[in-house]
Specification:
305 residues, alpha+beta, Carbonic Anhydrase II, 13-stranded mixed beta sheet, three-stranded mixed beta sheet, 6 helices
Length: 305
């Protein structure tokens, strides 16, 4: 596919997300998530996202090997990215040869864009939850399966997109690796605002690769209308640190199309409806180790008190 064509498709990826007819409850409850299926029928289907991941029910899958990140270390600054307030989130349209494969993904997927979901200055705002816990913010890096020549075809297929989900946890110190994105927010406060973002290695935003072998996998959908059930989801166990000030910059700087502060821009968790959530070996080991440590701590307390 010609690079310009792919960039154009990238900018159109969530075209329906920028149109009228849907919103989040914090903007207007009459067009919030509970109403989406009325105008967007796919939002009422059985494989919707996000979900609550129950760690003890996740099924170990030996095929969930580490994902291969290709081009995530590319530091070429000759081509800028575009960062935009699309009325529902802040979205960065990507270019360049940035791909993922492996990890039992059925092919090679090209990075198209990334965006965020967050809460308020006092409330969490991630879309996925872990054992019922909602995190302060969530990053989605969206990839399109290269075997589909058009976005419309990809959105009709269960393997059309692969989205990587990263949860954030509040830290006492700022995260310098996301400073450039946060600094750009002041240039896009209103819906439709666009500015250039100097390209940087995408790997800088996410945890080190050795920490990315711990993840959950399930079949789901876009979390915004039209809610196409075309997404292979990978949600990583390792959170990304972010300071309170950095987190607040999103809700304090950006506005919805009606000029209300852009807050709580997440879809509530959806029913699994019989789907299985799989887990990588490393994630199994991580939580087994955590459980063992808890047992040891309890018995130590009993024996020595």
């Amino acid at each position: 596919m010609h690079p310009f064509t792919f960039l154009l498709l990238s900018s159109l990826l969530f075209l329906t997300s920028e149109g009228a007819g849907w919103c989040y409850d914090s903007e207007d409850i009459t067009c919030g998530p509970s109403t989406w299926k009325e105008e967007h029928v796919l939002c009422g289907m059985n494989k919707q996202s996000p979900i609550n991941i129950v760690t003890k029910k996740a099924k170990f899958d030996k095929n969930l090997s580490p994902i291969n990140f290709e081009g995530y270390d590319d530091a070429d600054k000759s081509k800028n990215w575009i960062i935009k307030n699309n009325g529902h989130s802040v979205q960065v349209t990507l270019n360049g040869d940035i791909n993922i494969k492996g990890g039992n993904l059925p092919g090679t997927y090209k990075a198209v864009q990334f965006h965020y979901h967050w809460g308020t200055t006092s409330d969490p705002g991630s879309e996925h939850t872990i054992d019922g816990e909602q995190y302060p913010m969530e990053l989605h890096i969206v990839h399109q399966n290269e075997k589909y020549s058009t976005l419309s075809n990809a959105l009709k297929q269960p393997d059309g997109l692969a989205v990587l989900g990263f949860l954030f946890e509040e830290s006492s110190e700022g995260n310098s690796k996301i400073t450039n994105v946060i600094n750009a927010l002041k240039y896009i406060p209103q819906t439709g605002n666009i500015t250039k973002l100097e390209r940087f290695p995408l790997e800088r935003m996410i945890p080190d690769q050795e920490k990315l072998v711990k993840y959950y996998r399930y079949q789901g959908s876009l979390t915004t209308p039209d809610c196409n059930e075309a997404v292979i989801w990978t949600v990583f166990a390792e959170p990304i640190p972010i300071s309170k000030d950095q987190l607040n910059a999103f809700s304090k700087t950006l506005s919805f199309s009606n000029s209300k502060p852009m807050t709580l821009n997440f879809r509530p968790v959806q029913k699994l409806n019989g789907r299985t959530v799989h887990v990588s070996d490393s994630a199994v080991r991580l939580f087994n180790a955590a459980g063992l440590s808890m047992v040891i701590a309890v018995w130590t307390s009993i024996l020595f008190n």
